[in-house]
Amino acid sequence: MSLTIDDTTTTGAPRSPWHGNADAQELNHWRHVARQAADELATDALERDRANQDPFQEVELLRRHNLINLLVPKEAGGAGAHWETAFHVIRILATTDGSIAQLVAYHYINQGSIVFYGEPAAQADWLRRSADGQWVWGDSVNPVDPTLELTPDGDGYRLNGFKRFSTGSSVGDVIIINALVRGGTNDGKILAFVLERGRAGLELQGDWDFLGQRLSASGSVRYNDVAVRPEDILGEVGDEPFSTLVTPGIQLAFGNFYLGVAQGALAKGRDILRGRTNSWFLSSAETYAQDPIFQRTVGELLARTAAVEALAGVLNRTFDDALAKGAAITAEERAELAILIAQLKVVSTEVGLDVAHRIFEVTGSSSTSNTVGLDLFWRNIRTHSLHDPVDYKKIEVGANYLLGEVQPISLYT
What is the pTM of this model? Predict the structure, then answer.
């Protein structure tokens, strides 16, 4: 990949630093790296989940495996990989630790906001500084909790307000924030800007204590008269098609995340089932794994998961194709991609939840023991799949198919 941020296409539109597609060598290499990281996370996933501590050690594990700068172009000091590769990494990590898969997914999107929102002339410098520092990017952008305001203060601003569900904020080196400007020449605009975690007046609440995704560092943040300097600002959050690819991007990350949870639940369920040396007393089979009843259930869940994987595989590559167009991508092309990804969101949510729930039907009552940890898969996907109502994704898909309607641009659609 080449760092071509300041170049322009033949239409005069700024070019994306991401172009082309991942080859087999790239995909195989990073899948292997992600598998190694996932295997390390698997050794104490249940214990870490119960401890419910901020995942600083897990972040260091990601750094050690060189996953933090995966999407940063080589010319800026990164690995120069593609988004298709990143989605594979997210999926593989989710097979053993959904919390860290979420943390990585949001990091990639938040770091990518340098390109989605940043002024072209400044993007290369942001990318290089992020790569040099191996910055982990958290966020504070929850759009249904719009209480952050910027008020002009000299050549900068003061930030005040409260924001829930700020994923990665308690362990991120930096936090990307969206806030509404009140007053001055930018009155009414929403600006995206970046603050270090220790900025004066930025208070981490440490209140993330939920059913699942317990190590996603998604607590609330309060901002008390925080200074925001001109150099902290990436740019305006608007409705230009390329910049709004941030939403299909995170939704596609969710689809891969849910798929990984389903695959992880199936793998753990298979190990449990094959480890049972007896069978149900009414069965003619010698073991549970040889019983057609349990084979049928596993076969159904596996087939449905494979279908989700096939759809995700197509869309992961399609997303790279869309990014390569840069600002030349049209609103119609962006909308078509968003609808396809919404379809994945629907099926990955429902299949993931079903697999994580029904795997208990084949593993038996002993698998509900707190020492087994099979419930971790269900708790994680049940918690995160409530991020935005999947029924509205179904409506989004159906309304488009029937009437050609497109939902208004937001951080959810």
Answer: 0.95
